[in-house]
TrEMBL record, chains A, B:
Protein name: HTH-type transcriptional regulator YdeS
Domain HTH tetR-type: 13-73
Alphabetized PROSITE patterns for the sequence: HTH_TETR_1 (PS01081), HTH_TETR_2 (PS50977)
Keywords: DNA-binding, Transcription, Transcription regulation
Segments of the chain annotated as binding DNA: 36-55
Domain of life of the organism encoding this protein: Bacteria
Stretches that traverse the bilayer: none
InterPro entries: DNA-bd_HTH_TetR-type_CS, Homeodomain-like_sf, HTH-type_TetR-like_transc_reg, HTH_TetR, Tet_transcr_reg_TetR-rel_C_sf, TetR_C
Length: 211, 211
DNA sequence: ACCCTTTCGATACCGGCGTTGCGTAATTCA
DNA sequence: TGAATTACGCAACGCCGGTATCGAAAGGGT
C-alpha cells in the first residue's frame, strides 16, 4: 500500500487536504491575483514551510488544485460519432468558460481563460510542472480519444484519418479560441466545428454530393 | 502627426528602444526566469520609474517585446491551397519551436512554449493585455485568413466551409500541441493536418472516391 | 523673464515568493 | 531506554514587482 510505514515522524493526517482545500477556496474566491501562499498556509492552519515541503512552488500547488477540481466530462458512445462529439465539445466548452470566470468580476470584456492559461504558462516554465499538466490532460482526453478510435474501428471514419489529429483539430480549435483569440466558444460553434472536421473543407469534385 | 509637440518636457529619444532592446536581450539570454524589471532598467540605463511610466506591468512589457520580435511569416497564394497552407503551417511551427527554446538549456524533456505561454497567461490576467495580445495575433493571422477566403472565392473550398473555423482547426491544433500536450509539431505533422482538415475525417459513402 | 507641464532619476517602501536555520514533536529501530 | 529520522512551526532573510515621494531638468505658453 501507499502507507508504507516510513522511518521518522509521520505526516499529520489531512494536512494535504486542508491545504488543497484552502488553496481552492482562495482561488475560487479571489482568483489568481489575491491568491498568496502565505494566506493559503494561514487558512489551512499550517506553517509556510510545511506547505513548501509538499509543493515546491506556487505553480505546483495550482496544478494540484486544478487536477483535483477537474470535473469529469461525460462521454457517451451512442454510435453516432457526430452527435457524441458535439455533446462532448459542448460540455468541455461550458466547463472551460465556467472555469475561466473563476474569481473574476466577469466584466463585459473579460474573455480570459483564467486557470487554464495559468497552468499552461506554469507548464512552460518548469519541466516537472509540464509533465504533471500533460498527465492531467492525458487523463482528461483518454475517453474522447477512445471514442474516436471506436468510431474508426466501426468504419465511421476514413481509414487514413488519424484520431489524435482529429482530436487536435477539435480541442485545439476550442483552446485556441479561449486562450489566444478570446472568441466565444458557445452557441453552435461546437456543432459547426464537428461538422467541418468530419466533412472536411475541400470543395467536392464534380461527382460526389456535398454534405 | 504622432509628433504633436506636447506641453511638458519631451521624452528622451530612443529610450523606448533601449528598454525594449534590453528586455529582449535579457529574455533571449536568460528566459522568463532571470528576467527582472530592475535589471532591464539597469541595462537600459534608465530608472525603474521611467520604465513603469511606459509599461505599467512586466506583462505589458513582455507583450511589447513579443510584438516587436514577431517574425513575419511569409504567405504565398499560388492557387494551390493545400500547398500554400502546408508551407504556412510549417513556417509557423518552425518559428514557434524556435521561440519556445528561448533562453532555455534545451534539455531533452523540454517541449515548452516559452514566451507564447507567458503572453497567453498575461492576456488572461489583465483585460488590456488581452486586447494587446489579440491585436498581435489578429495582425499575424490576417494574411493566412485572406488566403483561405481567396481560396473559397475561387471555389476551392466548400461553400458551407467557414474560413475562420478552418483557421481555428489549423492554428488551434498547432498551438494545442505546443501549449497543452507538448507534442512535437515538426516533421510531416503540418502536411497531415492540412490534408485532414481539407479532406475531412468522415468515411466516404458508397459513392464518392476518397481523396 | 516667468509659470506650467511633463519627464527623469533616486530613494524608500510594501507585499509576496521562496529559502534557511533552529528548536521541538512524533515515530521507528536497536 | 536511547539514537536516528522525519515532520512541524517559527522567525528571519534576499529577491523581485510595483508604488509613492521628492527634487531636478527640459520643454512650451504668455
Amino acid at each position: 500500500m501507499a502507507t508504507a510505514a516510513r522511518r521518522g515522524r509521520p505526516r499529520a493526517e489531512g494536512t494535504d487536504d486542508r491545504i488543497l482545500g484552502a488553496a481552492c477556496d482562495l482561488l475560487l474566491a479571489r482568483g489568481y491575483d489575491g491568491y498568496s501562499i502565505d494566506e493559503v498556509a494561514q487558512r489551512a492552519g499550517v506553517a509556510k514551510t510545511t506547505l513548501y515541503r509538499r509543493w515546491p512552488t506556487k505553480d505546483h500547488l495550482i496544478v494540484a488544485v486544478v487536477a483535483r477540481i477537474q470535473d469529469e466530462v461525460p462521454v457517451r458512445d451512442t454510435g453516432d460519432i457526430r452527435r457524441d462529439l458535439t455533446a462532448y465539445l459542448e460540455a468541455v466548452a461550458a466547463g472551460l468558460t465556467r472555469m475561466s470566470r473563476v474569481g473574476r468580476p466577469a466584466g463585459p470584456d473579460d474573455r480570459s481563460a483564467g486557470l487554464v492559461a495559468e497552468i499552461v504558462a506554469a507548464a512552460a516554465r518548469r519541466p516537472d510542472v509540464g509533465r504533471a499538466v500533460r498527465a492531467v490532460f492525458a487523463r482528461r482526453n483518454a475517453l474522447p480519444l477512445a471514442l474516436l478510435e471506436s468510431a474508426q474501428a466501426r468504419g465511421d471514419l476514413g481509414p487514413g484519418a488519424r484520431p489524435d489529429v482529429i482530436f487536435d483539430q477539435l480541442a485545439g480549435a476550442l483552446y485556441y479560441r479561449l486562450l489566444v483569440t478570446g472568441e466565444p466558444v458557445g452557441g453552435d460553434y461546437p456543432a459547426r466545428l464537428v461538422d467541418q472536421v468530419l466533412a472536411g473543407a475541400r470543395a467536392p469534385g464534380p461527382e460526389g454530393k456535398p454534405s
